[in-house]
Amino acid sequence: MRQFLYFGCAALVCFALEVKAQKASDIRQIENYLNNLKSLNANFVQMASNGTTSEGRLFIQKPNKIRMEYAAPVSVLIVGNGDYIVFNDKELDQVTNIDYEDIPATMILKDNIKIDGQNLKVTDFVKDAGTTSVTLEYMQDSDMGPITLVFNNNPFELKQWKVVDPQSVEIALSLYDIEQNQKLDENLFTFKKATSKSQAGGRRRR
User: Fold this and answer.
1) d(C-alpha 136, C-alpha 117), whole Å
2) Rounded Cα distance, 176 and 193, in Å
């Protein structure tokens, strides 16, 4: 009886070690994917836990450049030039500068990402036949909320990310029609405030 118990415990330990090794391999795959991703452009659908839905176009150029163009009826443009992020509410004619450190999702814009438990810690990990999901938490910034990244397994690519805003609303941004590592126009990441038609018309020569 003791022999069966011993072998049973040994088998469980071996299985646990195999699972741990596989998880470590999956984390390295995620890390390598993010570090090899130099640019991305895709359509997106954004859904929030409060019921709001929006869509638009996303552009990413590493390091630290991002552009999010929201489609009507949402009149928002977000542009990050590497130094700061501009949030432009075109309907209110309002421009706000935001620090990168205030947005968890900007983690994916970095050139060198290390999921080593020192800067980023894995707090949840789920893998099935179709997708891999990992939740990462910042170790040195308690004010920065966690981010969950969801990947398609075949081909392995970023499918979605989820964050929770300061009002405790979960926001999920899903990507489709993805193009990776293609050259993007640098002008995409320079914010230029739109000129209204009436203003533009006022400057026309007659």
Assistant:
1) 9
2) 28
CA distances from 164 to 31, 67, 96, 139 (A): 22, 20, 20, 17
Cβ proximity of 77 and 91 under 8 Å: no
Give how many domains the chain has, as a whole number. 1
Asked if 37 contacts 20 with a C-beta cutoff of 8 angstroms, the reply is no
Contact (CB, 8 A) for 153 and 131: yes
CATH number where 82 lies? 2.50.20.10
Q: What is the mean pLDDT of residues 34-44?
A: 96
Q: What are phi and psi of 171, to 5 degrees?
A: -120, 125
For the stretch 82-127, pLDDT in tens is 999 999 999 999 999 988 888 888 889 998 998 987 788 899 999 9
Q: Which two tokens stand for residue 26?
A: 């999956």
Looking at residue 25, what is its pLDDT? 92
At 55-76, the pLDDT tens digits run: 999 999 999 999 999 999 999 9
By the 8 A CB rule, do 77 and 70 touch? yes
